[in-house]
Design goal:
4 helices; single chain; 5 strands; five-stranded parallel β-sheet; alpha/beta
Length: about 170
C-alpha cells in the first residue's frame, strides 16, 4: 500500500465450506444454528477489529458464493442466510463506520432476497461466469433493477468475456 497505493477488499467467508462456523463438512454450515452464527460473527468481529484502522482497507465483503449451498444450507434457507448476512453487516458497521460493506454472491441468484433482507449491505458483489454470451447489458440491468445500490463484479473469468466482441 505505501509503495503503490494498492488497497484491499477484506472479507470473511461467513460459513461457506464451513469456514468460521466449525460445522462438520458433511453437515455443512446451518445458518439457523445460533451457536454457529455466534462463531461466524466472532470471526467477523476479529477481522474488523484487527484491520479496521489499516489505511489499505477499501471495504469489507461477506461470503463467497454462499448462495450456491457449498457445504452450507443457504440454498434451502436463503431468507435465513441473507438475514444473518445483514446481521454481520450491522456488526461491521458498529465496529467500523468508515468503510462500506459488500456481499459476494454467486451471480444474481437470490438478489431479490438480498435486496429486501440486507438493507445494511452497501454493495452487491457478483461472482460471474456467464459463458460465451458474456455479461452484457442484461446482467447490469437485471442487477440494477433488483439491487438499486452499487454493484461489483467480485469475481469473473473465462468464459465471462464476450467472445464475439471486437478487440
Amino acid at each position: 500500500y505505501q509503495t503503490y497505493g494498492i488497497r484491499v477488499i477484506m472479507g470473511d467467508f461467513l460459513g461457506v465450506y464451513t469456514i468460521g462456523s466449525d460445522a462438520e463438512w458433511n453437515a455443512g454450515t446451518d445458518y439457523r444454528d445460533p451457536a454457529q452464527q455466534e462463531k461466524m460473527l466472532e470471526s467477523v468481529r476479529r477481522m474488523v477489529e484487527e484491520y479496521k484502522d489499516e489505511p489499505y482497507i477499501l471495504f469489507w465483503t461477506l461470503g463467497n458464493e454462499n448462495n450456491y449451498g457449498n457445504a452450507n444450507n443457504c440454498r434451502q434457507f436463503p431468507d435465513v442466510y441473507y438475514t444473518f448476512l445483514n446481521k454481520a453487516a450491522k456488526l461491521i458497521k458498529s465496529l467500523d463506520p468508515n468503510h462500506p460493506v459488500a456481499l459476494s454472491n454467486g451471480d444474481l441468484l437470490f438478489i431479490d432476497k438480498a435486496a429486501v433482507l440486507c438493507p445494511d449491505v452497501d454493495i452487491f458483489g457478483a461472482n460471474t461466469y456467464r459463458g460465451s454470451h458474456g455479461m452484457g447489458d442484461s446482467f447490469w440491468q437485471d442487477a440494477s433493477d433488483e439491487w438499486g445500490k452499487p454493484l461489483l463484479i467480485s469475481e469473473f473469468g473465462c468464459p465471462a468475456y464476450h467472445r464475439h466482441a471486437s478487440q
